[in-house]
C-alpha cells in the first residue's frame, strides 16, 4: 500500500490534492446531512408521541442488530417502512436506499415495502448493500487493489513517456504532416457523385436490404426504425464487400492463370497513373514466365471495377461504398501499416470501427489485443476534419505514448486542428457547432474508455487477411492463431423462433392430406420435391413482390400439381403466402403478408422439406401411425431464453442453434467443421 501511495504521489500530486479536497467536502456534506436528519427525526418522534397519546395507537419495539451493535427501536407501524428506514439511518448511518433489513431469527425473511410491519419478527438485522457486496468479494477487493496499482504504474509510465518525448522529439511537424495531409484529397474523392453512383450500381441493394431486415427480425424487431434499418444495412454492406472484394498476395498470371512470384517494382504506365497507381508490382508466372502487372490503384473508381487489392485498396473502396449510401465515414490511417473505416452510427450514437479486410465491426481493440500490433498513431480523415483517434484503439496508452516519437503531443494536436479548420472553412456556423459538440463528446468518450476492462471476456482473433507467412513476418498472427471473434461471457438471449415451430407443425396437415387421399410414399416424396422447387423459384424473386407460377413446374410434374395445392394451404399461410387464381386460369403463389416474415421462414421450410424427404425415404410404413418423430416434429419448444458458455460473432451467437436452418449448425469455433451436436456451446432453454 505504501508503494502505491508513493507512485500515486509521484505521478499525480495535483490529482491527489484535488481528490483529498473533494473527499473533505463530501465528508463535511455528509455530516451536515446527518445532523439535519437527526433534527428531522427528533421532531418526528415528538409528533409521533403526541399523535399516539391522542389516537392511542400501539407501538412496537424492535431489536435491530447492525455489526456489533444492537439498537432498541420504538416504532409505530402505522407510519410505514419509509419512516422506519429514516429512523434506522439516524442510528446506523446507512442511507435508506442502501439498507437491507432481514429477520434476525431462523426465518431471516427480507423486509420490503410489501411487508406487514405488525407481523414481522421483533428481531431484525440491517446491513448495507455495499457492505454485503464487499463482504462477499474479498477476491474482488484484491483485484481492485491490484488494478489500482496497475493504473498508478500506467500513469507513471505516461508521465515518463511524455517527459522523454519532450526531450527526444523536436517541434518540427513536417514528417507527421507529410504523412497525413495527402489523405485529405483522397477522402474528398468519396464525395464525387460519379464515383458514388458507380459504386452503388455494383451493389445488390434489395438483397442486402432483405438480409438486414431479416437480421432484425431474428432479434424480434419486425418494425424497425429508419435508424435501426440503416445500421443493419451497413453491416450487411460490410459482409457483402468482404465476400466480393479479393485479397491479392500474388496475382494469377494474366496469360495462363497459374501462380506467380514477385519480381520487384515496375514503371507505372500513363493509364495506371490516371487512377493513382504510382507504384506497380511485377510478378513472373511459374509456368509460362509471363510478367503480370499489379498496379496499386488509389482511385476508388478504378477499385470498384477491379475489386481486388490489399488493405489500402480494401479500405479505400469500402469507404467510398459507405459514403455512396449516405453514411458519415472516415478513412482510418494506422501508421504501423494498416487502413480501415469508421462510420458514425446514429443507432449507437458514436463512431463505429469497420474493417472490410477482416469483416469485423465495432471491435477497436482487434489490432492491439488480437493482432498484437504495437500502435503509435491512428488518425481519422474525413471531409469534416482530421482527428487523432488512437485512444479508441488501445488500452495500453502508456506503451503507445512511448512509441509516438514523430512529433510532440502538442504538435500533433496543433497540426490536426489546423487541418480540420481547413476542411471546415466553408461550413455554416450551425454545422460547425454540431460538429464541435460531437468532437467534444468523442474525446470525452475516448478518455473515459481508455482504462475500461469491458472487453476483457472477448477473444479477438489474429489477422486473417493475407498469406500466413506474410502475417507471421509482420507479427500479426495473434498469440494463439485464434481465427474467430468469440466471447466467453455471454448474456442470456431470447430465442425468436416461434415461426420454426409453426412451420414444422404445418407439415402435419400436408402429410395428413396425402394419407387421406391415398397418396403413396413415392408420390408424397415427389410432391414434396415439387413444393421445394416452387418455393426455390419463389425465393429467387424480389422479396417485396414474390410471385411464382405453378405453371413453371416441369412437364413431368404438371399432372400431380393439382394433388399438391389442396394440401399446402395451411403451410402457405404460415409462410405469409397464398395461392392466387389468375384470369387466364394460371395459379400463382404470392405474398399474403409481411415480406420479411416470408424471407425469415423460407430457409426454415427448405431444411424442414429436406428432413422430411429424407425421413420419408427411410419410413417403412407411411400412414397416420408414422406421424411422429423423426418424420414430424410437432409442438417444438420455442421462445425460451438460452445461455451458452461461449459465442462467436457475428453469426455464431447461441440463438442460431435454434433458428431452424442448417448452415448455422455447421460452423464451429475456430473454423472447425462438424455436426449439430458438436457445436462448442452449452445451450439450455429456460421455460
Q: Which stretches are low in confidence, meaning pLDDT under 50 for 5 or more residues running?
A: 1-19, 53-57, 666-687
Assembly state (oligomeric): single chain
Taking all Cα atoms into account, the compactness measure Rg is 34 Å
Structural class: alpha+beta
Strand content: 15-25%
Within the CATH hierarchy, at the fold level, what is the topology of the largest domain?
Answer: C8orf32 fold
Q: Helicity range of the residues?
A: 40-55%
Structure description:
Keywords: Metal-binding, Zinc. Belongs to the transglutaminase-like superfamily. PNGase family. The structure is a single chain. With 687 residues, this protein is α+β, with helices and mostly antiparallel strands. The protein folds into 5 domains: 68 residues, Ubiquitin-like (UB roll) (Roll); 205 residues, C8orf32 fold (Roll); 50 residues, Single Sheet (N-terminal domain of TfIIb); 65 residues, no CATH class; 121 residues, Ribosomal Protein S8, Chain: A, domain 1 (2-Layer Sandwich). The protein has a 6-stranded antiparallel β-sheet with strand order 14-13-12-11-15-16.
